[in-house]
Write a structure and sequence with these properties.
By secondary structure, this protein is mostly helical. 83% of the residues lie in helices and 0% in strands. Keywords: Sigma factor, Transcription, Transcription regulation.
């Protein structure tokens, strides 16, 4: 009895396929309704993501429709399952490649950030070492003005000197730096 139903189903499929080949959209919609859940489950078993499986299933039906002229009555369910499985595998591979590319990009950015961070740290250390070379009477004013970003007035008040003295010290410190340091030392 089950064989009769299977045979009837295949005959109905073949009739619908013949109509769909002639452009009968309603016939193809009936095939979609009949096999939608089956193909979705097949695709989902490969893709493992509901939203992506829905998209892939829709695309599979488009591919089936476009391939109908090449269908040779060799068992519709088997034929369309092969199309669905092959397409789902292709999509999954593409998604994996894209994921790998994204991961590589993220890793490269992270590596770059670490490298930049290390370079900045090394540069700061090199500058600190070079600042230690500055004579002590200039070093205090350089640190206060350029590192701590204090105004002439704040420095004068902290060091208990006149603002003019701070200006003079900064002028002499800059002159000392120009004389003893080269730009290449910091690159």
């Amino acid at each position: 009895m089950k064989t009769d139903r299977k045979g009837e189903s295949e005959i109905q499929d073949e009739a619908l396929i013949a109509k769909a080949r002639k452009g009968d959209e309603h016939a193809f919609r009936l095939l979609i309704e009949k096999y939608r859940n089956y193909l979705f489950k097949t695709v989902y078993s490969i893709i493992r993501n509901e939203k992506d499986a829905e998209d892939v299933t829709q695309e599979v039906f488009v591919r089936i429709y476009l391939s109908l002229p090449r269908y040779q009555s060799q068992g519709f369910k088997t034929w369309m399952t092969r199309i669905a499985v092959n397409y789902a595998i292709d999509v999954k591979r593409k998604m994996q490649r894209q994921l790998e590319e994204v991961m590589e990009s993220i890793e490269a950015e992270a590596d770059e950030r670490v490298e930049v961070s290390v370079m900045k740290k090394e540069e700061r250390e090199r500058i600190r070492q070079r600042l230690e070379e500055i004579p002590l009477n200039y070093r205090d004013v350089i640190y206060a003005y350029y590192i701590d970003e204090k105004s002439y007035q704040q420095i004068a008040k902290e060091q208990n000197v006149e603002v003019k003295t701070v200006e003079t010290k900064l002028y002499r410190a800059r002159s000392w730096l120009r004389k003893h340091w080269r730009e290449e030392d910091f690159q």
